Each structure stands twice: as structure tokens, then as C-alpha cells.
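Standup notes
- DV: blocked on the single-chain target, sequence here:
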Amino acid sequence: VQLQASGGGLVQTGGSLRLSCAASGRDFSNNAMGWFRQAPGKERVFVAALRWSGSNTYYTDSVKGRFTISRDSAKNAVYLQMNSLKPEDTAVYYCAASTHIGRLTYSIGDYGRQGSYDYWGQGTLVTVSS
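- DV (later): unblocked, structure below
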């Protein structure tokens, strides 16, 4: 099972990037998936997640209104559209998939917990210049 994250790069403040996460080896179209990030010298933290059906999305406060998580079940992929990027968004971004978050789970606490996810991508670096 592999999650391959891509799409990172260098962008100016106010710019946009779209991260992609392609899954292989297992069908995650009916699983919760999320994005986390780790800034230099800091711990990895939650960014966004979506419920197995895609009907509910969850975001950390600092990215609400700027980032959008989505999925393409046919491609077994999840995306993170990042707009109005700020220097503080600079980080390595990781996608993750969960086989533990149940279909009736709605709490952002569960979606935001790293321990809820059991598959992780390798990370893609996003650098936002000021």
C-alpha cells in the first residue's frame, strides 16, 4: 500500500498550489483521508480531512476559507487546493488514509488526530516566499 503525495513547490505569498495524493495497493474510496503538515522545527499538525463519503470536510482554523480538500474516488486520490498562500503555510505536507475512522464518525477531533490514520504518504514540500 502506498500513498504518493505530489504538487508541492515554491510559490509567492497569495499564490496557489494543488497537492495530489494517489493511493495504490488498496482502495481508499470508502475511507476517511486527510492532510497534515510539518513546518520546520515543529511537530506535524492537522490541516484538512474528509469523511469517507466526501460529504463532510474538516479544516484547521488557519486554513478555513483558503484550502479545499476533495477526492476522486475513481482515481483513488485525494487533493488539497491551497489558495491565498501565506509564508506560515510553508511545510512538508503529508496525506494520510484511515481504516479506523468509522462511517458514522463526525467529530473533527477524530479526523484531526494523527493516530486515527494508519497509512501515510512521503510528504511534499510547500514553500511560500514573502
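- Follow-up: Helices lie at 108-111.
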